[in-house]
Q: What sequence folds into this?
C-alpha cells in the first residue's frame, strides 16, 4: 500500500485515534431524551407520499418532517411541499431541502414564495437568503441544495436542463454570494466548508476534478478513470485529500472499496476493502472537520421502511464503526440524510 501524504495521514490518525462518537438512540420510534434535554440535531428530513387513486401516480404531500437525534419528529410547516417549474407551475416532486452534516441547520424553499431560507433544525427564526440564488423565471425544479458541515454556508447548484446556470455559495451570516463556473458539476463542500469539490468535463473524454476555494483560487487535476468514474467522492478539510468510493459487486461478491486521492500531487493510494457487504455500498460520504470519514448506507426498497446506517470508516484498514441507525417509514416520498 502506498503511503498517505502528510495531510491525509493526519486525517487517518484522527479516524483511528479520535474520540468515540456517542450514538443517539437507534430507532425513529424512540422518544426519550437524555437528562431532560431535547437533541438540537436532525438525523434526516423526509416528506410523505400520496397516491392518485385514479392514475396510480405518487406525489409528495403534507409537510416536511425532521427525525431528530432523540427520536422526536418535528414538522417544518413553512417548507414547500413541491418544487416549481420555470413557468411557476407546481410540480409533483418534493420541494428543495437540505440538512447540514452536523444536523443542526436546515435549508429549504419556503412554501409562501419559494424563496430559499435557512434556520436551526430545532426551531427558531429563519434567515432569508438573496433572491438572486434562484433567478426569476428559472423555478426550483433544477435546483440542488447542500449545506456546509456546520450549516454556515449553502451551495446552490443547477442542472443543465435547459441551460445550466452558475452555481453559487452563499455565506448565511452575511448573505455574500460567490459564483462558480456554470460548466462545473458541483459535488459538495469539503470537511470544513471552506472549499467546494466539482467535476468538470475537459473534453476528449477526460474529466477534471476541481476544489474551489472561497477566495477564488482552485486546486485542479485530471484524475485516473477510477477516480473520475467513482460513484461517490468527498473532499477533506485540507482541500486536497479526496475519498473515492467504489460500489460493491454482488455478482462477484466484492465489497465496496475505498481509495484516497491527492488532488495536489496526483498520488492515488491502493484500494482498501470496506468491511461491508457487497450490497451495502455507501451512497454518501463526507469528511468531518477533525478528519473522520463518515459514510451513509441506506436500504430503501419501495414499499418498505428505509433503514439508514451512519458509519465511520478507517481509510487505512477499511474497518467501519456504526455511529447511528434509524428508519423512515414506507410512506415517504423522499428523504435526505444529514450531510446529503
A:
Amino acid at each position: 500500500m502506498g503511503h498517505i501524504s502528510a495531510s491525509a495521514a493526519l486525517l487517518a490518525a484522527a479516524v483511528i485515534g479520535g474520540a468515540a462518537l456517542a450514538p443517539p438512540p437507534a430507532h425513529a420510534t424512540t422518544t426519550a431524551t437524555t437528562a431532560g434535554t431535547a437533541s438540537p440535531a436532525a438525523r434526516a428530513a423526509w416528506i410523505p407520499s400520496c397516491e392518485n387513486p385514479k392514475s396510480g401516480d405518487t406525489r409528495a404531500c403534507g409537510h416536511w418532517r425532521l427525525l431528530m437525534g432523540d427520536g422526536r419528529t418535528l414538522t417544518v410547516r413553512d417548507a414547500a411541499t413541491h418544487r416549481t417549474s420555470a413557468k411557476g407551475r407546481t410540480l409533483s416532486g418534493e420541494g428543495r431541502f437540505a440538512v447540514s452534516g452536523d444536523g443542526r441547520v436546515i435549508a429549504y424553499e419556503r412554501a409562501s414564495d419559494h424563496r430559499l431560507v435557512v434556520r436551526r433544525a430545532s426551531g427558531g427564526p429563519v434567515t432569508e437568503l438573496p433572491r438572486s440564488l434562484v433567478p426569476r423565471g428559472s423555478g426550483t425544479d433544477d435546483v440542488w441544495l447542500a449545506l456546509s458541515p456546520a450549516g454556515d454556508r449553502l451551495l446552490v447548484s443547477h442542472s443543465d436542463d435547459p441551460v445550466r446556470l452558475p452555481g453559487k455559495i452563499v455565506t448565511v451570516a452575511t448573505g455574500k454570494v460567490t459564483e462558480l463556473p456554470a460548466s462545473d458539476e458541483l459535488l459538495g463542500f469539503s470537511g470544513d466548508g471552506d472549499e467546494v469539490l466539482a467535476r468538470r468535463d475537459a473534453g476528449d473524454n477526460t474529466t477534471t476534478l476541481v476544489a474551489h476555494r472561497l477566495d477564488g483560487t482552485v486546486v485542479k487535476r485530471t484524475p485516473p478513470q477510477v477516480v473520475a468514474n467513482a460513484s461517490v467522492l468527498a473532499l477533506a478539510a485540507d482541500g486536497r485529500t479526496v475519498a473515492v468510493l467504489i460500489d460493491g459487486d454482488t455478482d462477484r461478491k466484492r465489497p465496496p472499496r475505498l481509495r484516497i486521492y491527492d488532488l495536489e500531487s496526483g498520488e492515488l493510494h491502493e484500494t482498501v476493502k470496506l468491511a461491508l457487504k457487497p450490497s451495502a455500498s455507501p451512497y454518501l460520504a463526507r469528511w468531518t472537520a477533525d478528519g473522520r470519514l463518515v459514510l451513509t448506507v441506506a436500504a430503501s426498497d419501495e414499499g418498505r421502511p428505509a433503514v439508514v446506517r451512519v458509519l465511520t470508516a478507517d481509510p487505512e484498514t477499511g474497518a467501519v464503526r456504526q455511529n447511528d441507525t434509524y428508519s423512515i417509514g414506507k410512506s415517504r416520498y423522499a428523504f435526505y440524510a444529514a450531510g446529503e
Q: What stands out?
A: The domain at 6-337 is CATH 2.120.10 (Neuraminidase). The longest helix spans residues 6-17.
